[in-house]
């Protein structure tokens, strides 16, 4: 398993039930990159329909993990309010329609008055197109979830190699040789869960990349009055900003998407300044200082749904990439799907009813078929 973010760690846990697994991670800790920088919302209305469906399939696990998996609850009530201006109503209608297609049955369109009742500090002009209210969105304890997967994987016998970048993979008989700086591993199967580095790992194995695009997103923690503690996450449908209560203040993001190479992402001053400006335009809060700022890479496939499945040209090489802005909320369902693919077992029973078939995730959809 290459990559110790939420994708690789959750999949290692799932696979370790029936297989020998070694998780290999460049950094000296798990979850340093996208996973450690997330806003961590379990929402069934944000993103591609497929990731919303995967989030719905993940909800039972996140709300009620298996006995002994975690020693405290991994989610808490939050709610999510999409807001929009008059010119944004078509976008709000689209979200409400997707929700009603079975992925978020309790979400509903609200008028401007109801949106203002939910968050009185919103400026009426920012919400004159009304909103979509998703009452069952929940906050996820990402650190707790990642630690529980890592601990569970260890208990199931998985090995961890931290501070161990994979330099290359080469085919060897029916499997692979995986080259580290000071060691060589052999494996029947390689799972590429390297996040923003997914295409680089494939290239190092002589495999055609999928065209993954890391997009930098900025977030910051700002001081705010006590009243914000009971707010839901508020997300502007026109991608101006989003914010939610966090650590006695607000987590605020300008919802930016700057194309990036796979790197240790850093926030840019102008993106943080833009976030403060958008908060002032959207709410009556007067915020001028920032307690902490950071950035992370959300890595997308060309169609913005994840890629999970065997590479068509390289037997034993399984892709698990392109989780975009949804890798936390979709991790349990994706991990179950990886276990099915790698273990050659039936597709998870709950996914077809939600409209997710293996073909929806198959990386082959990005590789041109030879004539
Ligand atoms: C600001 C922000 C807000 C977000 N909000 C949400 C949200 O509300 N809900 C949600 O579900 N998701 C959210 N996300 C998205 C979520 O964080 C990601 O989808 C998820 O963390 C991706 O996990 P990953 O394991 O694929 O990637 P990563 O966490 O980046 O892990 C990939 C790992 O692979 C390792 N690696 C790379 N190359 C190699 C190599 N050659 N050898 C060994 N290891 C290697 C890297 O070091 C890295 O640790 C947000 C992200 C950001 C940045």
Task: Describe the SSE topology.
Blueprint: H1 6-15, E1 22-24, E2 41-42, H2 49-63, E3 75-77, E4 80-83, H3 89-103, E5 108-110, H4 112-118, E6 131-134, E7 138-140, H5 142-155, E8 159-161, E9 168-172, E10 175-179, E11 184-187, E12 190-192, H6 198-204, E13 213-223, E14 233-236, E15 242-246, E16 249-253, E17 258-259, H7 269-282, E18 292-300, E19 307-310, E20 317-321, H8 331-342, H9 350-353, H10 358-361
Parallel strand pairs: 1-8, 4-14, 12-20
Antiparallel strand pairs: 2-7, 3-7, 4-6, 5-6, 9-10, 10-11, 13-16, 13-17, 13-18, 14-15, 15-16, 19-20
Helix pairs in contact: 1-5, 1-8, 2-8
Bound molecules: flavin-adenine dinucleotide.
Task: Tag the structure with descriptive keywords.
371 residues; alpha+beta; FAD/NAD(P)-binding domain; D-Amino Acid Oxidase, Chain A, domain 2; 9-stranded mixed sheet; 10 helices; 20 strands; 27% helix; binds flavin-adenine dinucleotide
Q: Quick recap of the structure?
A:
The protein is an alpha+beta fold and 371 residues long.
Average per-residue pLDDT, rounded, comes to 97
Q: Could you tell me the CATH topology label of the largest domain.
A: FAD/NAD(P)-binding domain
Number of domains: 2
The helix/strand series, from N terminus to C terminus, equals HEEHEEHEHEEHEEEEEHEEEEEHEEEHHH
